[in-house]
Structure formats: C-alpha cells, structure tokens
Write a structure and sequence with these properties.
alpha/beta; TIM Barrel; eight-stranded parallel β-sheet; binds flavin mononucleotide
C-alpha cells in the first residue's frame, strides 16, 4: 500500500481488485455523466491563495458537524451496496471512520444491516433513510436506527425515482443478479474479493431482507426494491419523519436555494448540498458551483454540509472556504475499500488529512474552523 499516495491511486487499485460490475457501479453517473464529471472538474477552477511567513505551527483540523466533534470535517457518505466493493464493507468502513474520529453514514441500501454495524462499532454512527412506499417499513427502519443508537438521521431527498446509469444496465447489474458467463468471469478473476465474499454471510440488502413485508428471498427482494422508492415524497413526509425520529436530522440532496430555505424552515439541523455524486439529474450543476448560493440563502439558520467530486484535501478546503461546515466523501472511500478493505479506507482518510493539513498551512492558516472566502481568488 506504500505506493498508494492519492485517491486516484486507490481508484486504480480498486479497479484491479473489484469485479467490473461493482467497480463500475461506484464509478458511474447518470446518462452522459456530465454532472458527475463537472463535480470534479469545477473544483480545479477554484484557486487557493498562497501565503508566506505566517506561523504554521500547531495546526488543527478538529471541528464539529451537527455539534459532534470530528477529527476533521469529512464524513463517509451513505453508499448502497458497499458490502459488494469488499466483503463486510460497511462494517470495515464504519470501523475505519470510528478509529479516525469522523462520522460514518450507513445507507438504507447497505449490505450489512444497522444491527451488524452497531454490533461491530462502539461509537454512534449516522443512518441514511430512503423513503419507501411502505411507510410501516420506513417507521421500522427509523425505530431500528434509534435502537442502534444512531446519532443522526440523514434523509435523502433526491432519489424519488432513479436516474439511469448506462454502465449498470450494460453490465447487467440488476436485481435479481444474473449469473451469465461474463459475470462469473468477472468474479473469478478477482480471487481476493471472492475469498472475502465466500467468508461472509452478508451478501444481500440486510436492512430490507426479512424486515419488509413479503421479502423472504432474493427475488422477492428484487421486486420489492424496484417498486418501493416513493415518487410522492413531500415536505409533509419530512415533518412526519422528523417527529418519529426525534433526533438530529440532516436533509441530503439539495442544490437549489429555494429548497434549502424550505429545508431550514422544516427544522433540519443540517442540509447536504449534493447532486448524489452526479448519479441523478444529469445536466444539473456541480455541487461546488451552487454551494455559495445555498449558503447565502440559508445564512446561519441551518448548518450546510457538502458532497460531490471531492478527490483531495484541497477540494475539502475549497468547500469549507465556500461556507460548508462539513463535507462527505463517497467514491474516495469506496475506492479505498475496494483497494484494501479497512486499511484502504483508513488510507483514504489519511491521504485527505495530510493534503488538507498541508494545504491549510500553505494558505497561511492554522485552524480549519477559521477558513473562509478570503483564502480563495474571486
Ligand atoms: C456507489 C454509490 C452509491 C450511493 N448510494 C447512496 C445511497 O444509498 N444513499 C444516498 O443518500 N446516497 C448515495 N450515494 C451518493 C453519496 O451519498 C454521495 O452523495 C456522493 O457519492 C458524493 O459524491 P462523490 O462520490 O463524488 O464523493 C451513492 C454514491 C455512490 C458513488
């Protein structure tokens, strides 16, 4: 792992170790992938101000997100099928985040269940909720997250219907999974991955299987999942969920200042400026390009978090300078996981930490909580 120095190195290693259909599932956006690309490209357009001859000793990356202390303001974003990038992926990523002192967010569409992750970690993690048509199931998920001691509910708003991802369709990544010779070949040529998978029982959506009504096997699970994302989700549902949950609520998937204002009115503790990593509305602007407008719209009425396209500590710093209180990373930690399991996720976080720390210093700052627009060129 000593030659893996950047998130891009981890991505290359993950490509070698993870079967193509699952690697592509992470490395894809919807339709033309224009928004997916813009998320990364727009970061490069923002330039940092180099400062010299300021005291750069005793630097600190410590901050808070929704009032929780974090060793640096970078959380692991909720990602579906994480346990397919590496056996027991959600457990390993949660443990890595815990050791690093940053939040881990478990997706509704995870392979390891809420209970699996709770049993394998000591500190509370965050749970991401997708609202399904079956509201009894949604209520039971909320209750399970509470019972597991989750300290925040991250409610995703931008997936009422699914944006089409061509790679997934071409790869035949479907539910129920097809076992064509192509798929068998992909798996057989990734022996490390295969050995890991053979050593775990966790190979299906364990938050759902045997919890949702009528879901008893893989094929009933497939039918259920395809039908369940609720296109009628509304602000009324947000109020119901907030009430039922009763704890810290983060609303994820907001790009528009008007929606951001409504989220603040709805009483969210934080919002995540996000376009789902370019996986939903292709043609939407990059997250970083709209961040300043959203920050301006909500002022200090709600904490603003950010995700989409972060591939370095420099990117993290740019998002913070533009007003984000915290950031989330999706693909960077998935690449780390695919490349090297728990150590790979720790390496992801370590790479970002070092980059963030050095960049902070070279911009003439010592405390991450004191950065702002003055560190950027207009
Ligand atoms: C493979 C993959 C699966 C994802 N699954 C979910 C999910 O289950 N729930 C959710 O709210 N967001 C999901 N997202 C979006 C991420 O939470 C996050 O918004 C996005 O990855 C940020 O962009 P980045 O990957 O460029 O860091 C997923 C993203 C990826 C790449």
């Amino acid at each position: 792992m000593s030659t893996l120095l950047t998130i891009d190195d981890l991505k290359r290693q993950a490509r070698r170790r993870v079967p193509k259909m699952f690697f592509d599932y992470a490395d894809s956006g919807s339709w033309t992938e224009a928004t997916y690309r813009a998320n990364e490209e727009d970061f490069a357009k923002i330039k940092l101000r180099q400062r010299v001859l300021v005291d750069m000793t005793n630097r600190s990356l410590e901050s808070t997100m929704i009032g929780e202390k974090v060793s640096m303001p970078i959380a692991l974003a909720p990602t579906g099928l994480t346990g397919m990038q590496h056996a027991d992926g959600e457990i390993l990523a949660a443990q890595a985040a815990e050791e690093f002192g940053v939040p881990f967010t478990l997706s509704t569409m995870s392979i390891c269940s809420i209970e699996d992750v709770a049993a394998a970690t000591k500190k509370p993690f965050w749970f991401q909720l997708y609202v399904m048509r079956d509201r009894d199931f949604v209520a039971s998920l909320i209750d399970r997250a509470k019972d597991a001691g989750c300290s925040a509910l991250v409610l995703t708003l931008d997936l009422q219907i699914l944006g089409q991802r061509h790679k997934d369709l071409r790869n035949g990544l479907s539910t129920p999974p097809k076992f064509t010779p192509k798929h068998v070949w992909q798996v057989a040529t990734r022996p490390r991955w295969l050995v890991g998978m053979m050593g775990t029982r966790r190979r299906t959506f364990r938050n759902i299987a045997c919890h949702a009504k009528g879901v008893t096997d893989l094929s009933s699970l497939a039918v259920w999942t395809a039908e369940q994302f609720d296109p009628r989700l509304s602000w009324k549902d947000v109020a119901w969920i907030k009430e039922r949950w009763g704890g810290k609520l983060i609303l994820k998937g907001i790009l528009d200042p008007d929606d951001a204002r409504m989220a603040a009115e709805a009483g969210a503790d934080a919002i995540v400026v996000s376009n789902h990593g370019g996986r939903q509305l292709d043609g939407a602007p990059s997250s970083i390009s709209v961040l300043p407008r959203v920050v301006e719209a909500v002022g200090d009425r709600v904490e603003v978090h950010f995700d989409g396209g972060i591939r370095s500590g420099q990117d993290v710093l740019k998002a913070l300078c533009l007003g984000a209180k915290g950031t989330f990373i999706g693909r960077p930690f998935l690449y780390g996981l695919g490349a090297g399991g728990k150590d790979g996720v720790k390496l992801t976080l370590d790479i970002l930490r070092k980059e963030l720390d050095t960049t902070l210093a070279l911009c003439g700052k010592r405390d991450i909580t004191e950065v702002g627009k003055s560190l950027l060129y207009d």
